[in-house]
Amino acid sequence: QVQLVESGGGVVQPGRSLRLSCAASGFTFRTYAIYWVRQAPGKGLEWVAVTLYDGSDQYYADSVKGRFSISIDNSKNTLYLQMSSLRAEDTAMYYCARGQWLGAFFDYWGQGTLVTVSS
Amino acid sequence: EIVLTQSPATLSLSPGERATLSCRASQSVGSYLAWYQQKPGQAPRLLLYDASNRATGIPARFRGSGSGTDFTLTISSLEPEDFAVYYCQQLSSWPPFTFGQGTKLEI
Q1: Does A106 touch chain B (CB under 8 A)?
Q2: Pick from B34, B38, B100: which is nearest to A105 by CB?
Q3: What is the per-residue pLDDT across A39-57, written as a single tens digit (0 to 9) for each?
Q4: Which CA distances in Å does A8 have to A12, A60, B34?
Q5: Strand blocks (E) in chain A
């Protein structure tokens, strides 16, 4: 079955970096788009970034542009979200989700990994 | 950027009742609208896509309607497991892939 498993969250100081992972299984990774969505505590959903499976097409929310970047290891069916210059407002649960193509609805979601930015 | 406004913010109903949730877009999104359900401590789950198509495994009591700027999610007869937060999302004009602020459906 389709599975997305996030990892790498934790507590980090403002200004530092963190790398999240999204490991995919149960589908051919190289035919989909993968999104990152975050949810601050008690708040709604905010789209963060998206990449086509081969990394050829990527988009970022204005709130993270220039600080976050996505990379892909197709041999491991794993996608990474590199986050730098972290701010308190980046504190959130981070989910990865699958779309059947770039711009498609998010049909499967991981369970999320929590990032807390605090001194 | 397309802004989605959901109403009401909170809807208080009982099992067996009918729920009607609204999502309004700041400009036309055609039928490129999805609905998600999120229960406490869980990831969101896709309910409906293209405004009215149910995702795999979603019961028939969930129905979506609308096009352009006004959309509705109707749950015909509430089951206890339906009490959750519901989000709409537009996929017409991106980035960004915007979500509504959510409607909490409570008992």
Answers
A1: yes
A2: B34
A3: 999 999 999 999 988 888 8
A4: 11, 20, 29
A5: 3-7, 10-12, 18-25, 33-39, 46-52, 58-60, 68-73, 78-83, 92-99, 106-109, 113-117
